[in-house]
Design goal:
alpha+beta; three-stranded antiparallel β-sheet; 46 strands
């Protein structure tokens, strides 16, 4: 045991002595050859090497330490050092040291700061470091053999290089706006540096302020090629960027400023992983993958992976590219703001929602080939007001695209919308006048899917087929419009309006595209039993307006509308000329309609003309006119509005010289033998209709009626009146008035003029100012008639002066009823039905005239009530009047 302790103590003492001897030897060597080490540093790194302290180290490894180490930069770059380090550690080879030589085989920079600058001429300070070093080192002086031996005992044979917690400042002054970037927390280790072999390297650093080391590089360098710059040395490294911010990259590296469009809005960090093989100046980038959140997305929605071979000349435009690009959840609204969208696609194309893209890329940038699939099911896409793909409808474009310099070729590809497929091909040519040409071909596509893309036809559902081919071209700058040529054919089609359920059957049409115009030919269809032909033209394809003409030899109105029309209504040889447009997704037709003859409301007509405005919810006829019943019919405005099966009708009507008896025979047969003459009418009416019939009680309105030179058939007011005056018998006393007796003999009442303001209200026809004029008397009345012909009137019989004088000679008491013109005004009342009218003097009004001594200013209409009048209260009259009006 004692021997063991002595042995241990001896061993420890020996180690300490050896260590002290080693330190003493190294310090002695350092002191002796300090200047030689310094000179060797200058020879390796240049004359501008400086440090504050130089000492031997053991705790951090056997070697030397130069504190506050720095290498000055050339004045043409900066006044600050190119490199500044808290400490430079130089490790030495123990074996060489024991042989009396100092071989520095390891360099470690502790907390270094590298300043890498590219000046205005594009020269980089580290690139010129070797040339500058050779120029700055003083020419060698003649040395003695002893001096040569001393220098030969100090060598830099670095096999291991390290950086601990360093920082690199990149400054590029070769561009108009100087670029700067700072890399922090740099840790780098290169092991096994060997001119004839490869060195293993690893690097970790931080580009982001708030993240730890988000940059990692691992791999091998070399074998090193003598006489070549650092860009020409072979490498094989894996590079990873976890959070590469594009604004930082484009600000610091001018190369990327015009390569990454700012409108892509890559606000979040990029993720990049790649493998570099070859030399740095002409690398092969294999197995790279880039992930980025573009267009404001919070997640990675753009992924690009593949390879890029720059080994030929290092020029990106000539690099061989292979890869896959995937874009998901791309906001169309944000995409529309990009230069790519605005330069390549028409300005009329817009939308909301999201699209996705998958593309296979191969070739060089100028000779690129792409296989692309674009999907847009969850988005709404519009082209002006012509086309609209709604959300939820499948939309997919599968295409092969190739680039040849400034020319992009879209090879035969497939566009799918719903169940409709379109073969699409084309060319896009860049330049001062970029131009796009597309060829679209549809082979018997389903019309039901195609029609959903047209907003003007959204209210319809369709069956049938569409086929044809169109070539469309457009200059993509300025206000130029599409130039389209080709033909589409619609056959075996049926359109059904969803709300009204009305159908267009047997539709066929040829649509010809002629440059900026289009023409519809050979179009024909059937609505129920009515056959219609159509021709049309679009003057400018940029404006969705169709000028058209529709013709029909026999058009039944009941086939076209739900509003009230008679089943017999027919328009023969009808022609409609107008313009069809789309406003806020609703079709509107404005034009003129004419018909040589036909039947309306069971009345034969001639020469029908009108201006028409039609939409799914409104029909308006302006200046509507025709000839019927030997007269003219005119309406300034007819309006029918409503949806589904309910409508509201508004009508302004004017009739001139219409055969009244013929009109009554057709529309009111119970009155056909009651009146003759020519009807003149002007008025306004409104009504509500449901299921093609006027709703009871909804018809309202009124107008001025005038019948000149007519006859009241089987009606003589004088006879009916005189039957209640005079004797109690049924015959009129002739001695009362010969003229009245003569008038009472006739069965009918011819008149010079009949006028009235007629009001239709709640199934009652009424008037407050009816006037009937004959040569011998005038009748003024106010009253009403219900639909069941029950009627009641209050009136005034005004005798002519001649008849009034005759009556006064025989009946002096009638002087009470004289007006200032010397005419007798005899109030009367009428009630009953046209077949059984009861007429009698209105003794109540007569009594009021006698008491007041004046005639009433107006005639009050009777109360609208079917109940018979209550028995009149007996009024006190002068005896002679009482005798004349004996009841």
């Amino acid at each position: 045991m004692r021997l063991s302790k002595k042995s241990l103590s001896l061993a420890v003492g020996t180690v300490i002595i050896v260590a002290l001897a080693l330190v003493y030897s190294v310090n002695l060597l350092a002191a002796i050859r300090r200047d030689l080490v310094y000179e060797e540093l200058q020879r390796v790194a240049g004359k501008d090497v400086a440090f504050d302290e130089f000492e031997v180290t053991l705790l951090t490894g056997l070697g030397f330490s130069a504190r506050n180490f720095r290498i000055g930069d050339s004045p043409i770059f900066a006044a600050t050092p190119l490199l500044r380090a808290q400490e430079l550690r130089m490790g030495v080879s123990l074996l060489s040291l024991m042989l009396g030589r100092i071989v520095i085989n390891k360099l470690t920079f502790v907390e270094p700061e590298f300043q890498i600058i590219t000046n205005e001429e594009g020269v980089m300070n580290i690139s010129s470091l070797q040339d500058r070093r050779k120029q700055l080192v003083e020419p060698p002086k003649a040395r003695s053999s002893a001096s040569k031996r001393e220098h030969s005992s100090i060598n830099f044979v670095v096999t291991n290089f390290q950086i601990k917690n360093g920082r690199i400042d990149f400054i590029d002054r070769s561009v108009r706006a100087p670029a700067e970037m700072q890399i922090k927390r740099v840790d780098m280790n290169i092991q096994g540096i060997n001119p004839n072999g490869r060195a293993k390297m690893s690097l970790a650093a931080s580009l982001s302020e708030d993240l730890d080391q988000d940059v990692r590089v691992e791999g091998h360098l070399g074998p090193f090629v003598r006489g070549k710059g650092w860009k020409e040395q072979p490498v094989e490294v894996n590079v990873e960027f976890d959070s590469l911010f594009v604004p930082l990259l484009t600000r610091a590296v001018p190369f990327f400023r015009d390569k990454i469009p700012p409108e892509l809005d890559i606000a979040g960090p990029l993720s990049l992983r790649a493998k570099l093989v070859g030399v740095l100046a002409r690398p092969q980038i294999v197995d790279f993958i880039v992930k980025a959140p573009i267009l404001g997305s919070p997640d990675y929605n753009a992924v690009l992976n593949g390879s890029a071979d720059l080994s030929t000349n290092g020029v990106w435009s000539e690099a061989q590219l292979k890869g896959n690009l995937r874009l998901s959840s791309i906001d169309i609204t944000r995409l529309q703001g990009t230069t790519l969208f605005q330069d390549v696609l028409p300005i009329e194309l817009s939308g909301e929602g999201e699209v996705s893209l998958e593309s296979v890329i191969e070739g060089t940038w100028d000779k690129l080939r792409l296989g692309t699939i674009v999907r847009a099911r969850k988005s709404e896409i519009r082209y002006g007001t012509w086309l609209r793909k709604p959300r939820g409808t499948i939309a997919e474009w599968s295409a092969k695209i190739s680039r040849q310099d400034h020319r992009f070729v879209i090879h035969e590809s497939l566009l799918t919308v719903g169940s409709t497929t379109i073969n699409l091909s084309g060319v896009y040519e860049r330049g001062s006048r970029p131009r796009l040409q597309l060829r679209a071909r549809a082979d018997r596509s389903n019309l039901s899917e195609v029609i959903e893309l047209f907003p003007a036809l959204q209210a319809f559902r369709a069956t049938g087929t569409l086929h044809g081919e169109i070539v469309a071209s457009k200059v993509m700058i300025g206000e130029s419009s599409w130039n389209m040529n080709g033909e589409l054919e619609i056959s075996e089609a049926e359109l059904r309006h969803e709300s009204s359920r009305r159908k267009i059957e047997g539709l066929r049409a040829n649509i010809l595209f002629l440059g900026k115009q289009a023409r519809i030919e050979n179009a024909a269809f059937r609505v129920r039993s009515s056959d219609i032909e159509m021709i049309g033209a679009v003057a400018d394809l940029a404006v969705p307006a169709l000028t058209c003409e529709l013709r029909s030899a026999d058009l039944r109105l009941v086939d076209l509308a739900d509003f009230p029309v008679a089943k017999s209504d027919r328009l023969q040889n009808v022609r409609l000329s107008g313009k069809l447009t789309s406003e806020n997704g609703t079709p509107w037709l404005r034009g003129t309609v004419s018909s040589l003859g036909g039947t309306l409301q069971d009345l034969p007509y001639l020469d029908l003309r009108s201006q028409i405005v039609w939409s799914a919810e409104e029909i308006s006829l302006k200046e509507f006119s025709f000839r019927a019943l030997n007269g003219s019919w005119r309406s300034r405005d007819v309006s029918i509005t409503g949806t589904d099966k309910s409508q509201r009708l508004e009508l302004y009507a004017q009739l001139n010289s219409v055969d009244l008896q013929a009109l009554l025979t057709s529309k009111f047969p119970s009155f056909k033998d009651r009146i003759e003459g020519q009807l003149n009418f002007q008025g306004e009416f409104s009504a509500e209709a449901h299921n093609g019939a006027i709703k009871p009680g909804s018809l309202e309105g009124g107008g001025e009626t005038r019948i000149p030179g007519g006859t009241l058939k089987d009606f003589n007011l004088i006879a009916l009146m005189m039957s209640r005056i005079g004797s109690s018998g049924s015959a009129i006393s002739l001695q009362l008035s010969p003229s009245l007796a003569e008038l009472a003999r006739f069965k009918d009442t011819p008149f010079e003029n009949l006028e009235a303001l007629v009001i239709l209200d709640q199934q009652v026809i009424r008037t407050e100012n009816l006037q009937l004029s004959t040569a011998d008397y005038k009748i003024m009345a106010a009253g009403w008639m219900m639909t069941d012909q029950v009627t009641r009137w209050n009136g005034m019989l005004v005798m002519s002066v001649r008849i009034s004088q005759e009556l006064l000679r025989e009946n002096k008491s009638l002087r009470y009823l004289l007006d200032r013109s010397g005419q007798i005004n005899l109030p009367f009342r009428v009630e009953g039905t046209p077949a059984n009218l009861r007429v009698r003097p209105d003794t109540r009004i007569i009594a009021q005239i006698v008491r007041r001594g004046s005639l009433p200013k107006t005639i009050e209409p009777p109360v609208i009530d079917k109940r018979p009048d209550a028995q009149e209260q007996k009024e006190s009259l002068p005896a002679e009047l009482e005798q004349f009006l004996s009841r």
